[in-house]
Design a protein that fits this description.
The chain is an alpha+beta fold. It contains seven helices and eight strands. Bound molecules: iron/sulfur cluster (2 copies).
């Protein structure tokens, strides 16, 4: 019993630590995102948005975007929003900055990208410019020190950021 309590406490501490490091790593690239990368991930592919987030993310343009075929319902009561090129970036993007950055209605995948923690693995999207430039290197070492496996590469092209509505 004492052993399982100790093990659980250790597990919780590690998971808090890994999330703290991931948040620090995401924050460390914020200037690069705006000034160098120019918010590439906010103008690429499709973004999955929950029903309650639609009005916020589309800046009130839900009906207009549905009529234009850029917003489509998908399974689970969610929507797929096309944010695939220069002229069709996410409606919440202005001057390479997210207008809803601090809102609780910003999709979780936007806040997590490009680092996702799944069980004992930290996955870093290979489609992120900062990741490709090796900017997460110091954090990768920290994740590994905590005993996490780090997976980098194109696997996250299938993340919510890139799911295509058919
Ligand atoms: S692709 Fe990566 S570096 Fe570029 S804006 Fe997105 S998170 Fe930042
Ligand atoms: S909601 Fe914000 S972070 Fe997410 S795609 Fe749109 S502009 Fe980018």
């Amino acid at each position: 019993m004492a052993y399982s309590f100790k093990y659980r406490a250790l597990f919780l501490r590690r998971s808090m630590d890994v999330n703290r490091i991931a948040n620090r790593a995401r924050k460390s690239i914020s200037t690069f995102c705006i000034e160098e990368c120019k918010a590439y991930c906010c103008r690429k592919g499709h973004l999955v948005v929950k029903e309650n987030e639609i009005n916020k993310v589309t800046q009130g343009r839900k009906n207009e975007l549905i009529a234009e075929g850029k917003l489509k319902p998908i399974i689970g009561g969610k929507y797929s929003l096309y944010i695939g090129d220069e002229d069709n970036a996410c409606p919440s993007l202005k001057g390479n900055k997210c207008l809803i950055h601090k809102s609780r209605l910003r999709p979780k995948t936007c806040g997590d990208f490009p680092i996702y923690i799944v069980d004992k693995t930290v996955m870093i999207s290979g489609s992120c410019t900062a990741a490709r430039a090796g900017m997460f290197y110091p954090y990768i070492k920290k994740f590994m020190k905590l005993g996490y496996k780090v997976s980098e590469g194109s696997g996250l092209l299938n993340s919510d950021f890139y799911k295509v509505a058919e």
